[in-house]
Amino acid sequence: MTAKRPFDRAADSLRTVTLETGVNRYAEGSCLVAFGHTRVLVTASVEERVPPFLRGRGQGWVTAEYGMLPRATHTRGRREASEGKQSGRTQEIQRLIGRSLRAVVDMAALGERQISLDCDVIQADGGTRTAAITGAWVALRQATDLLVQEGMIARSPLLDQVAAVSCGVCQGVPVLDLEYEEDSNAEADANFVLTGAGDIVEIQATGEKRGFTRAEFEALFGLAEKGIGELFALQRAAAAA
Amino acid sequence: MTAKRPFDRAADSLRTVTLETGVNRYAEGSCLVAFGHTRVLVTASVEERVPPFLRGRGQGWVTAEYGMLPRATHTRGRREASEGKQSGRTQEIQRLIGRSLRAVVDMAALGERQISLDCDVIQADGGTRTAAITGAWVALRQATDLLVQEGMIARSPLLDQVAAVSCGVCQGVPVLDLEYEEDSNAEADANFVLTGAGDIVEIQATGEKRGFTRAEFEALFGLAEKGIGELFALQRAAAAA
Amino acid sequence: MTAKRPFDRAADSLRTVTLETGVNRYAEGSCLVAFGHTRVLVTASVEERVPPFLRGRGQGWVTAEYGMLPRATHTRGRREASEGKQSGRTQEIQRLIGRSLRAVVDMAALGERQISLDCDVIQADGGTRTAAITGAWVALRQATDLLVQEGMIARSPLLDQVAAVSCGVCQGVPVLDLEYEEDSNAEADANFVLTGAGDIVEIQATGEKRGFTRAEFEALFGLAEKGIGELFALQRAAAAA
Amino acid sequence: MTAKRPFDRAADSLRTVTLETGVNRYAEGSCLVAFGHTRVLVTASVEERVPPFLRGRGQGWVTAEYGMLPRATHTRGRREASEGKQSGRTQEIQRLIGRSLRAVVDMAALGERQISLDCDVIQADGGTRTAAITGAWVALRQATDLLVQEGMIARSPLLDQVAAVSCGVCQGVPVLDLEYEEDSNAEADANFVLTGAGDIVEIQATGEKRGFTRAEFEALFGLAEKGIGELFALQRAAAAA
Amino acid sequence: MTAKRPFDRAADSLRTVTLETGVNRYAEGSCLVAFGHTRVLVTASVEERVPPFLRGRGQGWVTAEYGMLPRATHTRGRREASEGKQSGRTQEIQRLIGRSLRAVVDMAALGERQISLDCDVIQADGGTRTAAITGAWVALRQATDLLVQEGMIARSPLLDQVAAVSCGVCQGVPVLDLEYEEDSNAEADANFVLTGAGDIVEIQATGEKRGFTRAEFEALFGLAEKGIGELFALQRAAAAA
Amino acid sequence: MTAKRPFDRAADSLRTVTLETGVNRYAEGSCLVAFGHTRVLVTASVEERVPPFLRGRGQGWVTAEYGMLPRATHTRGRREASEGKQSGRTQEIQRLIGRSLRAVVDMAALGERQISLDCDVIQADGGTRTAAITGAWVALRQATDLLVQEGMIARSPLLDQVAAVSCGVCQGVPVLDLEYEEDSNAEADANFVLTGAGDIVEIQATGEKRGFTRAEFEALFGLAEKGIGELFALQRAAAAA
């Protein structure tokens, strides 16, 4: 059971992934993450305030916002700011990014401050939300390291790594890291967010054209574990740079 | 490894589930679904039009909207209509319900018409989105049966059943069908949407307080398969009533 | 001068009216009110805060919100939450409900807290606003009785009963308690809100197809007094249950 | 039973009322109406289109919009355009104005066109909605006369006059045409909209501080009939000017 | 090089300009400004508060809002309040008015209070924004004089006069104070805002149909200096009235 | 009269300006423009439709939208999409960009299609609107060249170049191309938009802290002419690349 992927990529291969740091001179952390043609610019901004529901409780917060430039895609989309609202898809994605990062942060160790992760898609070719999570960890790592360096906090509030990848069943074959053309024709796809310890932070699996079997799901899970392992190594390299 | 559940419910037991039909005299299909204290009123409305992106293509559409009455919960929430927008959570849920039902509908057999599933939570005690999906299938079944009876379409566009349940890890123990108090203290939880054939339509798994292991996830999956099997029987009984 | 009403109802007869309490396990008061096929679910929620313009003045507030489920009507309407705003009609109705209930409440006796009356129309067959007012009094009575029982306030802030009914001129004949089909064909209609003492809280009279004469108006007023008298008895029975 | 009114006005006296036409060089009809210090600028705009629900039905429509300049009142209010929405009060008032004028228009005679009545309050001292209705009739009369003069329609679609006034119970005394200070202290008030034939178009009566008796209501009704009779004469004079 | 202007106006002539004060009985300052058929009602409202970014800094603020009645123009425009937002044009204009007036106010001398200038266009025939600025200075002068009279501040915070006019190139000829028909056909136009001392507060020059030469621009500048000189005299006369 | 500029830049020197093309693989034209640390990503998108007011008139349209990533600035700003509206500043800027580019386009030669210029600020250090205009011309040139190459149109609709720069008076000295720190302390500043032929498209001059003299204005104009001349050379080089 084989399917020819674009550029002859193997079923269990990631696209070329790069994590470039230092791409914004003002932000406490920043990362331009690329998965093939998908490019997401992430900044981490530290603010000395927390949302109202946390005030005075001695702990911090990590949140995320997601956006896509109108011409990040093949045809121009509408600008959400001029539409007057964020789409359901945008809100769903930014909620996912925020939850994923919060899963590896010790909020008490962060202290009463907020880190906002802005994830803006410069160019989209599938997998923007998982690229955003993967890059956001790098930006968050930089921002928290900076807080430690500056003596704002005693130790890093980062408990572990977190990274994400999408997988899908295309023409019956489970494959890793879908690009846009694969994604839009996949029978089913799933986004996996895992920690460095191998624990599940989030799984979002959807049968797009048909339901998929438990066996197929297990195959996707295996691919994700392999791919995310590679992403963890890239994250560590970027953080050490 | 045991945890005492409210009302001594077994780890693999559903709450009392009822699916009452005929609860709205105007709608083409309706179902008041209860999972314990959670109660969701679902109506299926047939409209002889489709969204713009489908016009003239000879196929139908199924969509869903979700709402919660302000006092469905322990403390009064704000009314989304007076807020001027639906929350990200609401949009995420109604998108999930719509996708789940579309997975079992043959859109060409439905013809160029739309069925809207309105899912309004009258009282919330955990699991409102999975209750909504389970009840929406019953309302949708009634509406499509009516279209067949009235000779609007030749055969039912419903390809299979679909139902959903939430599971979670509470104090280390995987349990089925969380009620609110369990849900808000769970370490991790997951919503499963499966078809009558046993295929996966959607999985949304989230580590709330910590990541969870693949073994825990597999245990939740098993519980979901058991619970959803029971829901399928209740759906068939309601549809036959 | 006679007109045949649906189901041979007499010109001065109410539809079957029921006021069912205890329909929400969280709210401090609740009432499912039915006038024939019209059904409105009312909850009364006590909150220990008042609107900004009343803070620190030692008195309370009663407010109301009104909504209609999309398929409460013969054909599906749009959901106001997804529209992004409440219609002028909705705002007009909820302002009326709030004013009507405030007319019988001693705000100083209520203390610095707010009671919100949420009136959600489950099914609409004419007279939803008057049904809402009539049921809201029952829910409010329960909520205020609870405050007294729990020792939060020394005595009931409820000064009197308040109830409402619609009347109209149909084919030249003044009739009580219009159902939808009558309402949409009435030459003129009026909503009356009266206190137990017989005083006027609100009258909203509108010539829909033609102006109406002062004599016709007086006839409607008489019908309303009769009908509201019967509603007061039903309210007392529901409150005593 | 007497109460001293500001400027020793008699209980059954209108304030000085003026209806000045020709105040906008572009509008098909216009009227600056003053009731004492209350001043409302009304324009009638003819447009050769009707709302979607009337298209192709060979009949016209009359609608109204209402606004208040931010400093029309003693203290500056917020500008609704910058707030991003019209208040419930504004919507309620403009719906009332529209219904009132439609009551005296033969929509078939108007033909498939719309007349919009814009009522903008330049200065507010009570009774803005009733002043707006009274002035809007004059502007509408001018616009419909113009349509007849220009041969667009064969005969005037105006069936009768319509005018409005507010009355209230102040310190126990029924009085005509409340100014702001009276209005804000009235025990009860009512707006009456009547036709030249003496028929009721709208009554909106509200017990502000207490319910009011049927006898008080009848007294207000009598005052309104007297005052509106005087307004009809002023309207005819303005239309003849 | 000559072009015939409407009403044979000379290229360097203003339309008839009037500045009428005392047109609102509640506002601390008010001015009805007319440039030919263009009429703008300006009120100045003093409020004992400042925007959040200025609190506690011992200085004041001057801000402006701009609106246009729907039938101020030849054909009826949409009401921004019912549209739910101010247009980009409206926001641009009110920002310009605010900046222009702030340029001649000593904010420390004003003290911690805000003056809001509401500029509402009653009738539009070109040059509404420059008329608004010119009239707003008069209203602001009245309001600040009143603060001095009432002993709220020791001396006037007004440092100088400010006035504005539009100029344009019509059929190749530079002309002063465009009316609507000229403005909509101009090749280029420019708004000049100058102080009594002759300094530039704002210039907004736009090539509408083609770019314009520096020589043309200089000619417009000269016309503006002449016209604004005349406006300053009218402002002083109005302020002295 | 000299003032030390950051990095010892001469009063009449531009910052380092780069215009990088080919930065988006989907857009018909794209340019990443940098003026020192200011970086704006511009894409030109061709769409085979025009706005409603131009339909069927055989001519095209050019429009622009502007946005700023939340952390483009020293401290994080709010995301306009989540705010639910574009600020007045944003709308003012995007209107300016659109007008500036339209000034050099022959709309009939473009044919009935629209080109949208999306200008997104990645990093802001002053002069974002003028950088956007300068880069947008390059992206527009690419998009129109592509239309010619593909035979969609017979000849280029671009009539000339257009570029822009800001100038200001800082500590009494007129200087070219302000960076953020200069801009926020300038006594006055002005944005100039000129064509290749030297004609004025737009001038927006504002006295920020004080009015400025006509002599100062003329000095700024001279600096702008010099700087824009250099920008034209860079645009031609980028277009030829």
TrEMBL record, chains A, B, C, D, E, F:
<dbReference type="GO" id="GO:0009022">
    <property type="term" value="F:tRNA nucleotidyltransferase activity"/>
</dbReference>
<dbReference type="Pfam" id="PF03725">
    <property type="entry name" value="RNase_PH_C"/>
</dbReference>
<keyword id="KW-0808">Transferase</keyword>
<dbReference type="InterPro" id="IPR018336">
    <property type="entry name" value="RNase_PH_CS"/>
</dbReference>
<feature type="domain" description="Exoribonuclease phosphorolytic">
    <location>
        <begin position="14"/>
        <end position="143"/>
    </location>
</feature>
<dbReference type="InterPro" id="IPR015847">
    <property type="entry name" value="ExoRNase_PH_dom2"/>
</dbReference>
<keyword id="KW-0820">tRNA-binding</keyword>
<comment type="function">
    <text>Phosphorolytic 3'-5' exoribonuclease that plays an important role in tRNA 3'-end maturation. Removes nucleotide residues following the 3'-CCA terminus of tRNAs; can also add nucleotides to the ends of RNA molecules by using nucleoside diphosphates as substrates, but this may not be physiologically important. Probably plays a role in initiation of 16S rRNA degradation (leading to ribosome degradation) during starvation.</text>
</comment>
<dbReference type="GO" id="GO:0000049">
    <property type="term" value="F:tRNA binding"/>
</dbReference>
<dbReference type="InterPro" id="IPR050080">
    <property type="entry name" value="RNase_PH"/>
</dbReference>
<keyword id="KW-0819">tRNA processing</keyword>
<dbReference type="GO" id="GO:0031125">
    <property type="term" value="P:rRNA 3'-end processing"/>
</dbReference>
<dbReference type="InterPro" id="IPR001247">
    <property type="entry name" value="ExoRNase_PH_dom1"/>
</dbReference>
<keyword id="KW-0548">Nucleotidyltransferase</keyword>
<dbReference type="InterPro" id="IPR020568">
    <property type="entry name" value="Ribosomal_Su5_D2-typ_SF"/>
</dbReference>
<dbReference type="Pfam" id="PF01138">
    <property type="entry name" value="RNase_PH"/>
</dbReference>
<dbReference type="GO" id="GO:0008033">
    <property type="term" value="P:tRNA processing"/>
</dbReference>
<dbReference type="GO" id="GO:0000175">
    <property type="term" value="F:3'-5'-RNA exonuclease activity"/>
</dbReference>
<dbReference type="InterPro" id="IPR027408">
    <property type="entry name" value="PNPase/RNase_PH_dom_sf"/>
</dbReference>
<feature type="domain" description="Exoribonuclease phosphorolytic">
    <location>
        <begin position="160"/>
        <end position="226"/>
    </location>
</feature>
<keyword id="KW-0698">rRNA processing</keyword>
<feature type="binding site">
    <location>
        <position position="89"/>
    </location>
    <ligand>
        <name>phosphate</name>
    </ligand>
</feature>
<comment type="similarity">
    <text>Belongs to the RNase PH family.</text>
</comment>
<dbReference type="InterPro" id="IPR036345">
    <property type="entry name" value="ExoRNase_PH_dom2_sf"/>
</dbReference>
<dbReference type="GO" id="GO:0016075">
    <property type="term" value="P:rRNA catabolic process"/>
</dbReference>
<keyword id="KW-0694">RNA-binding</keyword>
<comment type="subunit">
    <text>Homohexameric ring arranged as a trimer of dimers.</text>
</comment>
<protein>
    <recommendedName>
        <fullName>Ribonuclease PH</fullName>
        <ecNumber>2.7.7.56</ecNumber>
    </recommendedName>
</protein>
<feature type="binding site">
    <location>
        <begin position="127"/>
        <end position="129"/>
    </location>
    <ligand>
        <name>phosphate</name>
    </ligand>
</feature>
<dbReference type="InterPro" id="IPR002381">
    <property type="entry name" value="RNase_PH_bac-type"/>
</dbReference>
